Amino acid sequence: MTDPPGAVLVTGAAGAGVTSVLARLRDGLPGHRVVGDSEAAPGEAPLAVVLVVSATAPVVRSDGLRAAAVTARAGAVIGVVNKVDDHRAWRDVLAADRERLAAAAPWLAGIPWVGVAADPRLGEPDVDEAVAVLERVLADPGLARRTAERARQADAAASVTALEARRADVVAAHRSTRTGLARWRHGMQQARLELTHAARQRCAQLRSELLAEVAATTRRTRPRSEARVRQRCDDVLAAVDDEIEARLGQRPPDRPVAVPAAPRRARPLETRLMVVLGAGFGVGVAVVVARLAALAGGASLGGTVAGGIAGLMVTVWVVRARALLHDRALLERWVVDAVAVVRAEADDRVSARMLAAEADRVASVDRRLAELETELRRIAARRRRFDAAATDVAVTER
Question: Where would one find coiled-coil regions in this protein (predicted)?
Answer without folding.
Answer: 355-389
